[in-house]
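Work Package 3 (structural annotation) set out to generate three-dimensional models for the target panel prioritized at the project kickoff. During this period the team completed the workflow that converts sequence records into discrete structure tokens, so that structures can be stored uniformly alongside our sequence database. As a representative example, we reproduce one entry of 702 residues exactly as it appears in the project archive.
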Amino acid sequence: MKTTLQKLPLPLILAFLFTNFIFGQAGFNNTFIVLNINNSGNTYYDLNAATSNADFQNANLGSFCVGNTSGIVFKGAEHNVYRCGSCDLTATAIHYSIYPAGNPNNTFSSVSIGYQSGFTNGCGGEDQRWSDISATTDLLSGLAPGNYVLEVYSDAATTCNGTVYASNSGSNYKATFTVTGYVTYYADNDGDGFGNNSSQSSCTGAPAGYVTNNSDCNDNQLQYVDADADGYGSNTLAACGVNNNSDCNDNQLQYLDADGDTFGANILVACGVTNNFDCNDNQFQYLDADGDGYGSTTKVACGVTNNLDCNDNQLQYLDADGDGFGANITVACGVFNNSDCNDNQLQYLDADADGYGSNTIVACGVTNHTDCNDNQLQYLDADGDTFRANITVACGVLNNFDCNDNQYQYLDADGDGYGSNIKVACGVTNNSDCNDNQLQYLDADADGFGANITVACGVTNNSDCNDNQLQYLDADSDGYGSNTIVACGVHNNIDCNDSQLQYLDADGDGFGANITVACGVINNSDCNDNQLQYLDADFDGYGSTTIVACGVHNNIDCNDNQLQYLDADADGFGANITVACGVTNNSDCNDNQLQYLDADADGYGSNTTVACGVTNNIDCNDSQLQYLDADGDSFGANITVACGVTNNFDCNDNQLQYLDADSDGYGSNTTVACGVTNHIDCNDSQLQYLDSDGDGFGQILP
């Protein structure tokens, strides 16, 4: 357990130095209560303190069985206090009270806490530790089961301030705990929540497999509620009941419905129907509403055993001949009347009483239905022209004025001897006229224009110039006809455009000769229709790829908008000779040999080709004259060359010249343009003298 003596902060010490040293003061720094819970060792709880210990205020100390002597044992307390100046502490104590939750009282037990140690502080006094953890008070002693509050506070007696308190600003410090009583539990072998008489007691809840009652009639088998007492139980477990839970509805009796018609027999079952008024539960019963012995498809508890009746709300009668009229015999499915005179043979209506019946079936009539019109008498029409003789029949015509009932007569309205398809009582014997309202003319060539010969079927005009050959429209009078057939025209239809003359385009250039043709072009502007002509815009004799009516007969011009000149030496400069493809200038002085720029006019050209220049390109630097340096001393003679040095002040370009700085006739190793021809001077910066005797002193030679 960690405890500390809280020191006064330095500002407080400084503030109190004078007053406290003279007058004195004492009080608590922090306080702790010490408890032993369930023999787990001493635990320090913070009261008037803020350490890493558990806080006592609002703590739940746990749940304890009634009579537990080691549940909560009070061990004592620790008080860390201070005194300043002449003030002293004479005693400290902790006070506690235990009462039921919600029912506080003012009865406290007090325990004195003695002095243990101290050390000098900064206010002319001491910080002290008062501690005693030797108590063994059982705080649960005599407590009945319930929820309790443990309330504590501390005080100290001083020589200057009387009694001082550590009491949470007067509210004291409170923690809670619970005392639980012992309960008798009963074994529940089948786990249904109902126990047998085998028991044991516990204050910590039911042991596994135990419940609070011993009401089970059979603890080795689950029992179920049988609310409707039919011997079949619900899914609700009961202490005493039946041993099955198969009842579909335990609040209503269920009856056996063996035939599945929703009507039950008087036999109880777990799952069935809720009624028991089936007359025969082994066979369906059907409603017979009209009492004809034939049932509907409606199942009933008591009825007939068939469901054959097509309409159970109305009697049905046998209709053996299927005419909709029934005999006087009831059947399951039939008709609603019994008016048939003969149900074994169909009867037909004979409205005109000619002995021939219509297709209308009646209950009583004739036995045939051959009359075509039962509302009017029919007469024989032997030739089928709708005009009759004076003989009644089942099917015939309505009149009897045919001139010849053995042969058709046809209307000839235009009097050409050819009849229409209209039959008449008296007329011609053929019906080949295509239009009996207008004369028809022979059209032998089928061009829509007829000759002057009448026929049964033809055209309505006789304007054809030649009915043996088709005639075509020649609108442009070129001797070639269009596809438009006319009464009089030409006998061909090969003209591609009969609205405009066509001209021969033999070379296919879109420009025609002055020769008309059936299909061609619409102009005749071609200068030569046997050879393509090309545009020569720059008049150089070379044509572009643009075809024209009149032009040149080649299309090799690379650029027909600008003259091209021959560039034989391919230097980009052309001669004054026009060609189809070349360069656009004719400035070349010599087109048979490349010309090079000679910028410094030394007779030696650079690598730059020009129209007019020199014929070589050996100049090392065409921007500056080069001079011959025969002796390689970088000083040139006054002779220009293609590659050399850029100066020409060498006194003798055939022999190296050396610097003679001291003018003694002997040169140094430094080459110069003009100097001496030797370089044997040991020191050209100073004259040298002969020292024949080797004494270091030279002589001046005369």
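Residues 10-181 form a domain with the Coagulation Factor XIII; Chain A, domain 1 fold (CATH 2.70.50).
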